[in-house]
Amino acid sequence: MLHEFTLSRGRAMINFSLKYCDTKQKLLNSYGFRRVVESFIKQELKKDEVVIYDYYLEHFEEEDDLINSLIEVFKLLTVFDIKEVVSVNNKYSIFFKDKDLFIEVTELLMAYWKRLERYTIVRNNRLGDGLQNVRFIQANDMFNELILSTIHRIQATVNGRESRIYRQSTAGANAGLTLNNVNWNCPVEYKGLAPIPFISTVVFQPPYISYTKRNTRDGIFQEHQQNPLENIVLNEDDWFVFPVKVGSLLTFVYFHKDFMVHGIGLANLFEIATENEYIGKKPDMIYVFGYPDGFEEKRTFYYKDKKNDILIGYANYCDDIDYFGYMKKMLLTLHNVKQIENKCLPIHGAMVNIELRNGKEANIIIMGDSGAGKSESLEAFRTLNENYIRHMRVIFDDMGFLKKEEDGTIKAYGTEIGAFVRVDDLDPAYAFEQLDKGVYTNMDQVNARVTIPISTYEIISRGYPVDYFLYANNYAEADKKISLYDDLEKAIPVFEDGARKAKGTTTEKGLVKSYFANPFGPVQERKQTEVLVRSYFKDMKNAGTKIGEIHTSLAIEGKTKDGPREAAEELFTLINQ
């Protein structure tokens, strides 16, 4: 980011490396403050507060004069009282004829500022007039305090008294990033990506709440036959790269600044790679998210760069990709395609390691496509914790994979340290517990989501044997919630059929199917996956893994909450036997 401050699409970007405000006067004299006041008057007062706008504009006549005068009055009020301000220029008296109205304007300005997505940036290798040696977290805290103290000072001067109640909300940045220039083993085809700075640290203030253009995902990602990244050049001022580990695969995620919330969401979902894991290294996967290629329609696909042994993901700049599902699911598709090449079997589902109160332990995988009830089953496990479980550890909550070890055993691994879950499907008490760490999107809409950390990288990458491998059936009524199969010829078709009743998490409706309940790799690589399914199921069966169905009843009217809970209780009873 090369500019001191930018404001676009409801997002404010503040470059601490170029300008760091540590006094009220620096803040009020900054370009960023002027830009916010201009936008506030033109986008907020002029459109939504016409009475206030007309009242002041009648006095100043020109909009620019109103903007300049309001900024100047703010600066003066931090030093002088009202009489002294008016003595500087009598035209400022209009602001104090109705003090309550002026206070309302300051409150509206703060509300407008806080509705923006606000980000601070530090380039560690950049020298300038801004932040250099001050700690980044401390700098963000100080910036937040500066904004609050400035508005409190202005309001106290106008009111003629100090406030007795202070609401110390997050008025600074929602999130901050430290950036480093990094030399990685960049093939010549991708030299246009090389100048983009790497994110090394993320700090944000939960609950982080944002609204996106879309709240569902549509379709699957198909393989493309031409490399979409060859010879493209990314603008250093518009792009960031987040180095993350998707499972064990090093991945460089390039995202446009207009989709910053999805980049921040990655911090709660995947393990961030350390510098020694990517400096001078070549990634296993690259994803470019939000490239303006001139096409208005959505273009999302992947490409196998066999020459450089890199899987490429691509999503062009359009409103249709403005949903975290397009960030997350493309990365998982790339991961799964790569794992299939490595003879591992991707699993779309959830896995837990549980230890019951009687000392028995079990590793359980519940497989199913979006809305089948895998996450809801984990939530049911969590709510039953006191009655049945001594300890529960989530290995994955959306995607994992099975791997045949050198000794012939099969173990399961996770891909993510977090979960991207529907808020409505969480127990209310648990949902409130996540306020101090969650990234929330579209909170008042259908399919409201939260991205939360649920595990550690050490846990998901440890490798666990599988005791129960269950398909999540969300649509069929059943007296017995758990059905086990002795015959693999009957079991495998259930898993490969991938049937579920859509629940509104995508644009699908009714009873739908996807091969192996996994449109993120196995559908695209079906021929290779079919071979892996039969091999892994045979070996799991021989090792004593219990294979069957768990009837979550999630899509049955009136069973959304009770269905997963009843299934969990029956499963615990089965484990106890």
Summarize the structure in words.
By secondary structure, the chain is an alpha/beta fold. The chain has three domains: 172 residues, no CATH class; 129 residues, no CATH class; 232 residues, Alpha-Beta Complex (Phosphoenolpyruvate Carboxykinase, domain 3), CATH 3.90.228. The chain has 18 helices and 26 strands. A hairpin with a 2-residue loop joins strand 1 and strand 2. It starts with a strand and ends with a helix.
Task: Please outline the helices and strands.
Layout: E1 5-8, E2 11-15, H1 24-29, H2 31-48, H3 50-60, H4 63-77, H5 82-88, H6 94-97, H7 99-115, E3 117-123, H8 136-159, E4 175-180, E5 198-204, E6 208-210, E7 222-223, E8 239-246, E9 249-256, H9 260-269, E10 271-272, H10 275-278, E11 285-291, E12 300-305, E13 310-316, H11 324-341, E14 345-356, E15 361-367, H12 374-383, H13 385-388, E16 389-396, E17 399-404, E18 410-414, E19 418-422, H14 428-433, E20 439-441, E21 449-453, H15 457-460, E22 468-473, E23 482-484, H16 488-497, E24 499-501, E25 511-513, H17 526-542, E26 546-551, H18 562-576
Parallel strand pairs: 2-3, 3-4, 6-20, 7-12, 9-11, 11-13, 15-22, 22-26
Antiparallel strand pairs: 1-2, 4-5, 8-9, 8-10, 12-13, 14-15, 14-16, 14-17, 17-18, 19-21, 20-21, 23-26, 24-25
Helix pairs in contact: 2-3, 2-4, 2-7, 7-8, 12-18
